[in-house]
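Re: that backbone. Tokens:
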């Protein structure tokens, strides 16, 4: 339980909902993060999404789920308060982060409300283009969308005294790591334009936190900017209800949704190409660290709660930050356990009953044998955990896919 929740319980009064902006809120990860935020009943969620790779229907379902689950938790005879209802309503905006004036207008909406300046308490920044292969073909598009838009967002946050950021980063910042499992101290040497956009954004955010910390040390009365970057590995699965899940446009670029599309008939090719079977792994195929998307979403909520000034979690997270370096921390989110391509295929065969055919082809350029997180720092400092196993991820993914064979359409 967070400090804010504890204080509200002791006083016998519920604290006002904190306004939290989620960029990319309608996407696969974003919709599950929004759902998890609503479940806490501590936040009023504002979403920005241009629906480049998502649909508005996802957030409509998230809101319905949150309301139904909240009613069920209170019992049939309990009437919802206005705060209860507000905590399940998402203020969703169809907006591109590169449109500075449109994003500024959304911040201004809360600036001019009764909450006063700084009405948006914190930001969870997920929106980004994320296809490694595509980024090598159109790198400038990736730098503009991922880096320039982040700088624009940060400048707007500063203008409206919003100084708390959870940044959605990626394990791609490590490139080919010198050690596995990968600790956060590993140097950042991304191998693709996409990965380099994540490195650049982390560095921009870190520099902002440092400059803000220096200004406070020099006598500024402004609240210092603080941020947590979450470097996550391979999210998988879906909400167990099967009502929200991953709905990529076109042929999926990731293994698990591709297998789900094959099983449901959306991808007609009956053969899965396996890129190499001569790696030094358990069965010769590449090994990756998969975690359930709801475990990942829970990590975002923990990170957001850690940005509450004066809380025990805030002091714990930033205790090791050296003076003058600013309040910036990065954490790996993963299970710390790898699964091979063939192990994933077998798990999906059990979940779906579909008999996958595989064909081993040559190694794919850029692939490394194993990418596995060392999540011990996030466990120790944030209290992060990823209890869902691979069987559950596959079951929940298939529950979503078979119930929504065409996605949200």
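Recovered sequence:
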């Amino acid at each position: 339980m967070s400090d804010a929740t504890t204080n509200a319980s002791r006083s016998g009064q519920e604290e006002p909902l904190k306004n939290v902006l989620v960029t990319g809120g309608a996407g696969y990860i974003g919709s599950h993060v929004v759902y998890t935020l609503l479940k806490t009943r501590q936040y009023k969620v504002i979403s920005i999404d241009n629906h480049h790779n998502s649909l508005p229907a996802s957030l409509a379902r998230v809101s319905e789920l949150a309301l139904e689950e909240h009613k069920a938790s209170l019992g049939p005879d309990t009437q919802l308060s206005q705060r209860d209802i507000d905590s399940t309503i998402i203020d969703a905006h169809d907006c591109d982060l590169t449109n500075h004036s449109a994003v500024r207008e959304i911040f201004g909406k809360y600036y001019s409300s009764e909450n006063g300046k700084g009405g948006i308490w914190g930001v969870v920044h997920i929106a980004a283009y994320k296809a490694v292969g595509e980024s090598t073909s159109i790198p400038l598009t990736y730098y503009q969308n991922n880096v320039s838009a982040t700088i624009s967002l940060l400048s707007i946050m500063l203008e409206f005294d919003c100084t708390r950021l959870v940044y959605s980063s990626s394990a791609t910042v490590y490139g080919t790591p010198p050690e596995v499992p990968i600790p956060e101290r590993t140097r950042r040497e991304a191998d693709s334009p996409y990965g380099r956009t994540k490195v650049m954004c982390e560095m921009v955010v870190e520099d902002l936190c440092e400059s803000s910390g220096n200004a406070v040390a020099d006598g500024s009365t402004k609240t210092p900017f603080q941020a947590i970057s979450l470097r996550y590995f391979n999210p998988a699965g879906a909400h167990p209800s099967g009502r929200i899940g991953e709905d990529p446009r076109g042929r999926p670029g990731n293994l698990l949704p591709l297998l789900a599309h094959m099983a449901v008939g959306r991808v007609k090719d009956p053969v899965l190409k396996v890129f190499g079977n001569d790696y030094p792994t358990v069965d010769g195929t590449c090994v990756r660290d998969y975690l359930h998307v709801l475990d990942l979403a829970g990590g975002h909520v923990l990170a957001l709660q850690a940005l509450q000034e004066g809380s025990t979690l805030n002091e714990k997270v930033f205790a090791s930050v050296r003076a003058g370096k600013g309040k910036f921390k990065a954490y790996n989110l993963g299970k710390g356990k790898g699964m091979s391509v063939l192990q994933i295929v077998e798990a999906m065969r059990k979940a779906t009953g579909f008999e996958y055919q595989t064909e081993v082809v040559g190694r794919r350029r850029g692939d490394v044998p194993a990418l596995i997180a060392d999540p011990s720092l996030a466990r120790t400092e944030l209290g992060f955990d990823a209890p869902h196993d691979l069987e559950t991820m596959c079951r929940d993914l298939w529950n979503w896919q078979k119930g929504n064979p065409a996605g949200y359409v």
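The first strand starts at residue 18 and ends at 23. Residues 1-12 have pLDDT under 50 and may be disordered.
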